[in-house]
Amino acid sequence: MSSRISLTQMIEHYALTKKYDVATIFGDRTHNWGELQNRIAALAFSLQKLGLKEKDRLAVLSLNSDRYMEVYYTPWWMGAVVVPLNIRWSARENQFALTDSEAKVLFFEQNFISVVEQLKAESDGTVMHFIYMSEGDCPDWAIPYESLVNTSGRAERVLCGDDDMAAILYTGGTTGHPKGVMLCHAGIWSSSLPVTHAIEITESDICLHAAPMFHVADMSLLVAATMMGAKQVFIPQFEPNAVLQAIEKHRVSFCLLVPTMIKILLSSPKLTAVDFSSLHTIIYGASPMPEGVLMGLMERMTNVELVQAYGQTEMSPIVTLLSKVDHTIGNPRLKSAGKPTIMSRVQIVGEEGNILPTGEVGEIHAAGATVMLGYLNMPEQTAKTLKDGWVASGDAGYMDEDGYIYLVDRVKDMIISGGENIFSVEVESIISTHPSIQDVAVIGIPDDKWGEAVHAIVILKPEQTVTEQALIDHCKKQIAGYKCPRTIEFRTEPFPISAAGKTLKVDMRKPYWAGEKGFI
To answer: pTM score, two decimals?
Structure first.
């Protein structure tokens, strides 16, 4: 029993071996590893006194902080399950997650008081306790976080692990109900371990959490950094100046950024004024990286090494990694998502369920220790996605002769025009290399003749101009004519994005497909 893989054994290890070394920094708050373990054990003790027990679900709705890390590890310490809630979702969507997961506790902070008041008013009574994570006045219907930590009691670490459920992370929600992905201790551990090697994390490193902590990508980074005993710095949410200031002030050595964040960071006028010489690695992923953005990053931050991660929540989440060695300008591997990690297996599957040979495009399927337990309360959806231990990703791609995986699109984002399959990511990447382009999204719109037509929506860099025809000509020089946009729309307002930084193409398609049968 004691030899089981548990996500909390790393906390116990560093509280023993580097007790007085700093573990977390948030604003003016600093805690060493000994204090971190004591706070987690004390919070677990207080929760047990409130009636919480093993396998219970504890939800959290919060921006990033050191306390968010404690709320991840406390349920794991006591053998319970953490349920991170999406900070961008409506009260209705998060109410579904609370009800579906049967969460008995909701941790929240000041930015979400009004939302939680609505959730409380509409609650079916499953949530027994509301715990306020911020400083200052606590609502009279909630329990102050620190009052639960400031107790003399300490809970013993429950020896759970392996395939015991550790987290329920909700994904989807654009059609139907969100799906609660059930992840286990061994899966999250197995997914995070290759990240430690790819980034080359050591105990002397300092990790910055700027991506949202409710998202599985940052959860994986949190676990990877904790595995290696790295110091962890938290800012409430991504904001370019806050990121740059944190890197300079705390001498941050690695962080996770999604492509949208990188685009914003590269356009910051303060980028050249900040000392980021301590930063040795950026790991990026969660959405496709346009070629123009990647080239801009490599050219402007020449001393920073890069690692790309590809995966999905159902795989805890890492499937492939593109190493630092592969990130050299001119390397054709840059167009890939890297190779499967030592913990993952990948195969490319055709429409008939057959395994496709090297170079042929099909759906990416992944297997390994990182595979989810299934979707909570959704056996039919689980059966469609999880087949004989393989997760059907919904992503289209191919594998080369050396095992590198190339993503060509989300299956649902693929455009079929005149019988030809057109991958929107490929077109976006080409358009992104034009010097006038700041952002681009390519979607399919209805066409009476071809079924769908390629439509590009672009945002120009400040003080830049370019014609529709010039952008189409730019594409024709690099890709087949049938793949090129037939129409281009110029806009100035930012694209709709999810809390994790992904462009919401489904929202961008809606105005064009309103009333069309089968639109998703």
So the answer is: 0.84
